[in-house]
Structures are given as structure tokens and as C-alpha cells.
Amino acid sequence: MNNNDSSKNGAENKKNKQLNAFRVNNKGKKLTTNQGLKVSEDEHSLKAGVRGPTLMEDFHFREKMTHFDHERIPERIVHARGYAAHGEFEVYESMKEYTKAGFLQDPSVKTPVFVRFSTVAGSRGSGDTVRDVRGFATKFYTEEGNYDLVGNNIPVFFIQDALKFPDLVHSFKPEQNNEIPQASTAHDTFWDFIANNTESAHMMMWAMSDRAIPRSYRMMEGFGVHTFRFVNDKGEGRFIKFHWKPKLGVHSLVWDEAQRLAGKNPDFHRQDLYEAIEKGDYPEWELGVQMIEEKDEFNFNFDVLDPTKVWPEEQVPVKIVGKMTLNKNPDNYFAETEQVAFHPGHVVPGIDFTNDPLLQGRLFSYTDTQLSRLGGPNFHEIPINRPVCPFHNNQREGMHRMTINQGPVAYHKNSLDNNDPSPATEEEGGYVHYQEKVEGRKVRQRSESFKDHYSQAKLFWNSMSDVEKQHITKAFRFELGKVKSKSVKQQVVEVISHVDTALAEQVAAGIGVTAPEGIEPSRETMSSPALSQENTVKAPATRKVAILAEDGFNGEEVSGLQTALKNQGITSEIISETLTPISSREGQELQVDQTLLTSDSVLYDAVYVAGGADSVSTLKGIKEATTFVNEAYSHYKAVGASAEGTELLAAAGVETSSNAAGVVILQGGNSDEFIQAIAQHRHWARQV
Ligand code: HDD
């Protein structure tokens, strides 16, 4: 199904209908200038004679060129590289007891959403699979105005106070003298920041974990990070944290694969999302909420206002409250994905802020940044940013104003217009800020309760499986191995020592510094199983399998496998040396999807070597084929083959004994075990 046909998906959705008014289709139309004048010629500028100078009079040339010269806008200062999709959100049951937010009341209501995923550090043209935090920003177009949940795929943040955000960002962006490295934290300034701002210790552990190299946007959790507040119609408030839980589970790449992908397909994540939606494999997330009663604010060993802390799910359960489905790709990247403007301050009645000092600073930054990025104060009028409910106020004029406000009055209070537009009472839906009592002296200080930087870093470490711990250790060795300053490396190892001595020793050994002695690591013994990806959903749906085959392949076996995979929602592609259709040993032709040159094992979740003696022997003679299988194996992916195909596996260095993890030799065409192996995603027991 082609979801870009806006008459299909989401056609009933109010946002989609609103956007229809702005969608343009050139089919069967004549070429015109922006003034609507039909153009008779679009290849030659107006000249004084065929070999003469171009004339100033050529308004068509001037208009076309001027527009082109100004096609670019500044990229986002952070989260520049992103990809988005439309969808809808539905609540499972009314949340009236906790919040009066309209979109969380009625299970029969579907609220349109637009979600943009992003990397943080890289520029707009950087690779998708770099080690980084991923942005997860959702705009809910509710009947009470737009609500933006502007989160990340990691539940904590580097810093506790927004005043430090410019410093953090300057440290991880390319270094200012030479603009190197792009989209990477593996350099001196970032690690210098970490070493000297130890509130980052917890986030540092997450950033070195597999969470920072997701397999797909569709397989990431999302978190609101801050503590927000739900307020119900009785005016009662509760502290809350938001979670997005992917139905497909949380899965990651391996680091070597992530790096190769950055070259083989820098668009890996965006293409994955785009194709899944085009195919009708709509990604889904459940919305979860953790709640803490106000009276319990001080009953935890973390401060609920501290954005470097999680609320362990085992301590504060996540209540699943609704589901989001992404079901339509944007029609135009720039108009929608690039121009969408999120802001944590876009709230609706029933959702309010807390005094988290990071959140408070964000409430300033987002509108401010759109002023230069989108060129003025009217960016709310850009179609993707418009609410689906009416909006009226006395704000006027400014760059690119589109609204035509009628009448002479543009002020409040007035009598000439009957005091319209007039403020709404709370009963009429007017937003009333939660009446939290605040008092205090003006100070530039951090609360004592924010000063424990290591307990939760240790809690995270305690929660990891052995394999995840190995990955974290290697990630530190990689990142710090790229740092030039020995002093910075030494300082970071000292920070790690405050988390875990053994980890610090292993990192130190890998990067040529001494493991510090006498630093007492955190004594935290708690772990949170929910933080480990080992405990996630493991299902085969939407995985991608490469089937290697050449002339003489076993046609019956391949078509049987293709059907079995399809029945489980797995996509398969035929890969061969050239794009010329291949013939099975039964004499039937099969289309080839990719060649061994255009594809690569890192683009797939699993590989299968088709049977047929001639096919296998041809593949054995092609270096790219053995490399393909070898890499899939060394990236711990499921590897399958017919009995005949095992010859290629052996040539590729794959262990084929009956107990080899995730290596499946299909018996009698039965692919169940292979599908099980694909569902496992990775086979860590393999020694490679
Ligand atoms: Fe931010 C963009 C998420 C802290 C200032 N941020 C941005 C985006 C996401 C986040 C997902 C991209 C939105 C999009 O797709 O357009 N930011 C976060 C999270 C944070 C966080 C989860 C911590 C919990 N951010 C943060 C702070 C500040 C900013 C502390 C400044 C005080 N963020 C910005 C920004 C951006 C932005 C400069 C750049 C582009 C934009 O806003 O629209 O204003």
C-alpha cells in the first residue's frame, strides 16, 4: 500500500484533513511562476541573441534562482538529523482519576500525532547509526491544543541544570578549531566535560550501552525524562514520568555493524521506518505512566526533580495507558519533518511542569530557537505546526504572517469587540497553572538532594547482563581510545571508579592509563531488570532476511522458506551476483532483489544460504558471498542453510555443529527453528 496517497491512511484524521488544504499535486498541470503566470520555456534564460548576455528583464530566471538561493534554513542546533511519521494515539481507559487532559479521557477518540526521531550530535547529513542518544518527540494534535512530549530514548540526561546545556553541547559537537569529529562523542572535549561534570555519570553509562545504537526507531523506548505533573479536575496533582514501550521490543545493533552501516547506508534508520510504514507494518508503542503521590515526594533515595535519575519500574510501576500507531509517511520532508517545531512548554490542561531545573530552562529554549530556525514568530502557522482546534489571540504581524485578522481591534481588554477574544474560565477549558506553593531565597545553587551522582550509575551497571556489560566496557575502550589527552582519559577512569572498580580496571587496561586506587565505588546493590534489553520482547515480525542464491538453487526449498517467513511477517530478499534473474534447478526463474555488490549483511537481520549444488558452488567462488555470511555470523545473527548450503557456511568460518548458537541447518524444509533463531535477534553464546 502506498500510504503517501493521502486519500488512504489517516484520511479521517483531523490533522490529515487540515493538511489536505496545503498539499499540492502537479499532475497534469502547466508550469507557472509563483505569480501564476504560465511559463512557455524553462531551459533557456532570456538573452540578447543566442550567444549574447542574459537580460535583467528575465523575471522567470530571477524568481527561480532567487528561490533556489534561499532554499536552506539553519539546521537544528541539536537533533539536526531526524525522520518523522504521522499516526494516531488512543487511550485504553479514561485517566480521569489522574488527569483532566482531554485526549486521555475517551478510548473511542483517536488523537492525531506527528513523531520525529533524531540523533542529537550530528549535522543534518550525518549517519543514522552513530553512537548517540535518540530524540523521540511526539506532537499530539488534541482538541485542547497541541501537546508536545519531547523526549529521548534514554530516561535520564547528562546535566541537572539547563544553564549547563550550551556547555554540554559545545563539548560533544565537533571541536571548534577543526570541526572534527562529526556525529561522535569519541573525542577529547566530550570526555573532558564528562570528567569534570560528574552529574553525567549515570547518563554516561547509558550512552556507552547498546541503547545508543538502536536497531531501528521502531525498536526503541521513549521517555519524557523529566518529572511532569498530572492534575485532575479536582485540582489534585501527582508527579509523573512518561514512557513509550515499543511493541517490537527494544533491540540494538552491534558496534562494528553500526560503524559499517554508517558507510553502507547512512539512511538505515530512516529507510527502515519509511519502508515499514509503506509496507503496512505500522510501528506501535504503548504509553506508560509512572506516578508518585505528592505526599510521597521525599520517600525515595532520589530527588523526583533530578533529571539524572530513573524511578526504577520495580519500585514505581509503569501503568500502561494507551497506544500510538505510526501509519503514514510525510508527503514532503522539508514541509513537515524539517519545519515541525516541538516545545516541552506546549501543554494542555491536566498536564503541568515541575521545578526540575533542566525542564524549567527548556521552557525558554525551544521557542527561542525556532525564531532563528524558522525565521520569525509565526512558525505556529506552518501547516505541520497548526493545532487542529481553533486559535485566537491579539498577537499580530511579523515575518510570514498568514492569518488575515479582521477588524481594527488587536488588544485586550477592549470594548469595541465585546472584549473578544476573551480568556476562558477553567470550566471552559482555560489553562490554569497548578498552584504549587513555592518559597525561597534567590540562590545560584544545586539542592543537596541532587548530589548523589553514582548510585544510579551503579544501579544501571548492576542491571546489565554479562553481554551488555562487555559491550559497555568495549564502548568505553573505543571512545576513550580516541581521546588524545592522557589526563582526560585518567580523569574519566576515576569517574568510572566511583561506579565500579572492575569496570574501571578493564577500561584503564584498554586505554593505557593506570586504574586508580583508593576510590570507593558506589555501594548500590539494587538492580532493575526492566533496564536490561535481555528481558525485552523477542519476536520475528518485521525482521529482514537475505537469501543467497545462484543459478541451480533449490526452487522448492526457497519458495517454501519465502512463504514461511512471510507468514511470520518477515521480509526476505534474494541476493545474487548480478541482477539477472536466476533459474532454479527445476528450471524456474526468480527475480533477484539485490546483488552482492549493492547489499551487505549489515542491512539484514539474518542470512540463509539456499540449497542446490550448482548454486552453492558458484557462491563459494564469490568472495563477497563468504564475507556476507561471515559478517552476519560475527554480528551474532541467525544463519540458516540447507544441508548443501553448509559448505558455504564452513567456507565462511561458521561453526556448523548441531549445538552452534543460532546456526540452523534446515531439515526437510522445516523452517520453524530458523524463524525462532531470527526472533532471538542475536546469539551471544557464539564465540567469534
Ligand atoms: Fe532539547 C531539540 C529532547 C534538553 C534545547 N530536544 C530537542 C529535540 C528533542 C529534545 C527530541 C528535537 C525535537 C525535534 O525533533 O524537532 N532535550 C530533549 C530532552 C532533554 C533536552 C529529552 C532533556 C531531558 N534541550 C534540552 C535542554 C535544552 C534543550 C536542557 C536547553 C535549555 N532541544 C533544545 C533546542 C532544540 C532541542 C535547542 C533544538 C531544535 C529545537 O529545539 O527545536 O531548543
From TrEMBL:
Leader sequence residues: none
SMART domains: Catalase
Domain of life: Bacteria
Record keywords, A-Z: Heme, Hydrogen peroxide, Iron, Metal-binding, Oxidoreductase, Peroxidase
Co-factor(s): heme
Keyword GTP-binding appears in the UniProt entry: no
The UniProt record lists the keyword Iron: yes
InterPro entries per UniProt: Catalase, Catalase_AS, Catalase_clade2, Catalase_clade2_helical, Catalase_core, Catalase_haem_BS, Catalase_immune_responsive, Catalase_large_C
Pfam families registered for this protein in UniProt: Catalase, Catalase-rel, Catalase_C
Biological function: Decomposes hydrogen peroxide into water and oxygen; serves to protect cells from the toxic effects of hydrogen peroxide.
Family: Belongs to the catalase family. HPII subfamily.
Name of this chain's protein: Catalase
